[in-house]
Amino acid sequence: MTPHVPRESRHRHAPPGEVPPMSAEDVAAIEAVLGYEFADKSLVELALTHGSFYFPYRPGDTYERLEYLGDGVLTCLMSREVFRNYRTLPPGPLTRLRAANVDTEKLARVAVDRGLHRFLRHKAPKLQDQICLFIEEMRKYPVHSNGLLDPPKVLCDIVESLIGAIYWDSDFNQEEVWRVFRTLADPLIGLETLGKHPVTELFEFCQKTRRGVKFVKDEWDKSLKVEVLIDGELVASATYGPKKEIAQNRAAKAALDKLKETLGQTQSESASADVSDALDELEIAGTLKCQ
Q1: What structural domains and CATH numbers belong to the chain?
Q2: Residue 2 C-alpha from the chain's centroid
Q3: Which of 263, 271, 224 lies closest to 243 in space, CA to CA?
Q4: Is 92 exposed, middle or buried (0-12, 13-18, 19+ CB in 10 A)?
Q5: Which terminal residue of the chain has fewer beta carbons within 10 Å of its beta carbon, N or C?
Q6: C-beta of residue 100 within 8 angstroms of C-beta of residue 141
Q7: What is the Cα–Cα distance from 103 to 101, expressed in whole angstroms?
Q8: Separation CA 46–CA 60 (nearest Å)
Q9: Which residue ranges are recorded for the region named Disordered (predicted)?
Q10: Using CA atoms, how far apart are residues 216 and 202, in angstroms rounded to an integer?
């Protein structure tokens, strides 16, 4: 799976001073991926045009308005999906399930898995390297990293903008939008594959084992490092460029792994415990019904 920007030769000739339009071949390829044929083909081009694509010409229309529309309809449809499928689940877990299926990482994965990133129209100098790095790192986490990866937001944006384009083009047909997204996002994250955020899991683990946990970020501006102290002892640390949140999540994961190793827990035992805990919570709430 090698990302690339559509070749200039694939675009029709554009007059001097104007950006080239998307080729009919690319539009057809995108429709094939989506399983949806647009009445207004211009929406496909618009949904995949980043603001940087117009450089050095005058600014033009971008995907931002369609992204706004797609974000709203996806939140609504995913809320309906989890509410309907998990009939006795309380609001907290429902919110986590919804968020996991429409957050930046999940939608970025959809863009890559379906090859939509190949059609992104942009001229951002570092964006292609960021996409390549994300593709390489996502292979380590088959479902979701729960905060350990830093996907380029533009990948999420183009999925939302394409969904917004379909919503507009189909005259606001929610069922048609859901049909397309359900296929693109398959498999959806369910309760059995919903992991825990590493910081949350670390605090819960330390509470159960009566340990004190503290994150040290005082020297972030100098070292770009986050340290984890357990009962005052340095257990793990992590850095991640200028992204403090990613560094903190990775430090928490490293600390959690070390603590579990100390207690003789294997990763498989930990994963089983996470699922059991989630099912126990559901048992308290009532019988889980999942279609």
Answers
A1: 24-185 (1.10.1520.10), 198-284 (3.30.160)
A2: 19
A3: 224
A4: exposed
A5: C
A6: no
A7: 6
A8: 10
A9: 1-22
A10: 15
Closest CA to 164 of 5, 1, 20, 36: 36
Cα three-residue angle 46-119-78, rounded to 5 degrees:
70
Q: Say what the pLDDT of residue 2 is.
A: 43
Task: Tell me if 124 sits within 8 A of 53, measured CB to CB.
Answer: no
Q: DSSP letters along 205-261, please? A: HHHHTT--EEEE-TTHHHH-EEEEEETTEEEEEEEBTB-HHHHHHHHHHHHHHHHHH
Give the residue among 55, 30, 81 at the shortest CA–CA distance from 186. 81
Residue stretches of the chain with pLDDT short of 70: 1-17, 265-291
Q: Rounded to an integer, what distance in angstroms lies between the CA atom of residue 81 and that of residue 97?
A: 10
Residue pair 111/117 in contact by the 8 Å Cβ criterion:
yes
Other residues' Cβ atoms within 10 Å of the Cβ of residue 189: 21
The DSSP result for 101-153, as a single string, is HHSHHHHHHHHHHTTGGGG-B---TTHHHHHHHHHHHHTT-SS--SSS----H
Whose tokens are 């951002």? That residue is 124
Q: What is the per-residue pLDDT for 164?
A: 98
Model pLDDT, residue 231: 92
Write out the two tokens for 274: 């996470």
pLDDT at 223 (0 to 100): 77
Beta bridge pairs of residue 215:
228
CA neighbor of 63 nearest in space, from 78, 46, 79, 77? 46
The torsion angles phi and psi of 121, rounded to 5 degrees, stand at: -100, 110
Which residues have C-beta within 8 Å of that of residue 21, sequence separation ≥ 6? 11, 12, 14, 45
Return the axis-axis angle of helices 91-102 and 104-113, rounded to nearest 10°: 40
